[in-house]
Fold:
Amino acid sequence: RDPVFITTKDGRMVESNDAFMEALGYETMDELLKIAVTKHYENPDDRKRFNRTAEQDGFAKEFPANLVKKDGSVINTLITATVLKDRDGNTTGFQGTSRDITDRKSAADALKESEIQYKHLYSMVRLMCDNLPDLIWTKDLDGKFIFVNKACCDILLNAKDTDEPIGKDDM
Structure:
C-alpha cells in the first residue's frame, strides 16, 4: 500500500500506483499525470535537493519532503528512490516510494511540546518545594533519597538532637 512512482529527471510523472494517486488526493491517474511533480512539493527547493542527493549517491533514502495534495493540504513524507539511467549512464528519472509520516510527525511534535511543558512545570514545582518551610522528600524503592527540598536539607544536615548530623552522602 505504499505509494510507488516513476518520474523523469525534469519532474514529469511517468507512472504511479493507486496508492500514490490516493495519497495526493487525485481521483484518476490521468489527472495526476498532468501535474508536474515539482508542483507537489511545498518547497520547490526540496525537489532540487532530492535530485542532487539521488544523482550524487545513486539513490535517496528517506528523503524528507512536504508534499501538497490536490486540495492544498500538506502531508509530511519520506521519499526513497533510485536513479534511472539511459544506456550512456545519464540520469533520466527516479523510481521509488513515498511514505506518509504526517501522523508520526504530529505525534513527535506533540511529545516534544509536552516535554517542554513538563520541564517548565517541573521547574516551577521544584522552586515551590525549595521555598516551602515543610520537609519534602522522595525516596526510591531501596530507601535512598532522590529528592529533598531546602528545608529538609537544613534540618537533616543540622540535626541538633544527634551527635552526628546526617551528611549529604547519606541522602
User: Anything to note?
Assistant: The mean pLDDT is 88. The helical segments are 18-23, 29-33, 44-57, 102-131, 150-157. The beta strands are 4-8, 13-16, 59-68, 74-85, 91-100, 137-139, 145-148. The radius of gyration is 29 Å.
